[in-house]
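Chapter review: from sequence to fold.
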Amino acid sequence: MKVVICGAGQVGYGIAERLAAEQNDVSVIDSSPKLINAIGDQLDVRGFVGHGAHPDVLAQAGAREADMIVAVTLYDEVNMVACQVAHSLFNVPTKVARVRAQSYLTGQYRSLFSRENMPIDVIISPEIEVGEMVLRRLSLPGAVETVRFAEDQVVVVGIMCEEDCPVVDTPLRQLTELFPDLGAVVVGIYRNNKLFVPKSSDSIMVGDLAYVVARRDQVRRTLGIFGHEEPEANRVVIAGGGNIGLYVAKALENRQTSTKVKMIEASRERAVSVADELKRSVILHGSALDQNILNEADVGEADTMVALTNEDEVNILASVMAKKLGCRRNLSLLNNPSYPAFANALGIDAFINPRAVTISRILQHVRRGRIRGVHSLQNGAAEIVEAEALDTSPLVGRPLRDIDLPSGIRIGAVYRQGKVLTPNGELQIQAQDRIVIFAVASRVRQVEQMFRVSLEFF
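The token string follows.
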């Protein structure tokens, strides 16, 4: 696949890194020679210094032959115009743009991005994507990671296995025997900085991060079995009143009317602006690193501290301070890709990496075959994929026990006509079933091939 990426920042670099590693033909455009030199030195991509929306620069980068353009510069308008130029002059089939300004995305103006007006196939709003991820974490506080698939009927949760976890040292085969009606499958384990698909004879160990695919109605029970029965957060302190913090506070006011929200914002002007937009939330002007402000926010009585400022270090320290003052849990926004590996040791209960969220959304449209959803895990070490089975798929028509899936791939759930089926040896996948499948990075290409239209790829 030929892909042109406009923007060599954190997200652009991350997308280029993933696509280049999979032997795609990648060109990256950025106005910063420094960023282009860095990305060209470190990745197998072609770099071009220039304006991402200018036709001559897009032409040099190979837009005429491109299958996709991904515009993720710092400026919404550059991203939008780059997609328009790619469509009008170069007929690029798939156009993806990151758009931050919420005024473009309100319902009454959504027709702006129709094929007749500004033909952008995929709009990515980091504020909305990350905000929704925060809200899902707040609703399931026992999970480190939460992603939904198959019309929200299948949930993938990451669960930390601590010393009081009841199922530690229990072989997975025995778990299935103990809870035959659970409707949950352990598809991956992250242990000692390695992510792998466990065998039925493997046991969960203290310190493991287990990735479990479960029916939506069984998620809380699954968390309870793993020793996480934390109730939904009713008292939340938000550090940072930026776009994401405002989105989360508004959603909590509208969706969970019993939840009490207090927000800490360092900018007085922004604090006043946010206070005008919120109805029930309490806005405090000050630093989230000021213990007096944290006490004024009653952080010691809070269920969760959600740190959403623009600075990772502030988020980490504010989260740790909140826990020390008595807050039950914390959730931190971490932009630096190096920090998540140390999050638990730093005292962070759960974190969200905006770059990973954005890359996952883009990968959904890069993946070939009938791919309906993708979520990247552990900085690209594995992916959870939702794909539709076709008549030509090698998975269709045979019991799962007769299908020799490569190591590193595990089927977590099958969604058929509105029902979630838990995979077992007797289950036969049918055409049009939607499969939620876990694959380590080296096996993602094989998963794509399983759901391609033609038999020639098998």
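Two observations follow directly from the output. The chain is about 30% helix and 25% strand. Residues 454-458 have pLDDT under 50 and may be disordered.
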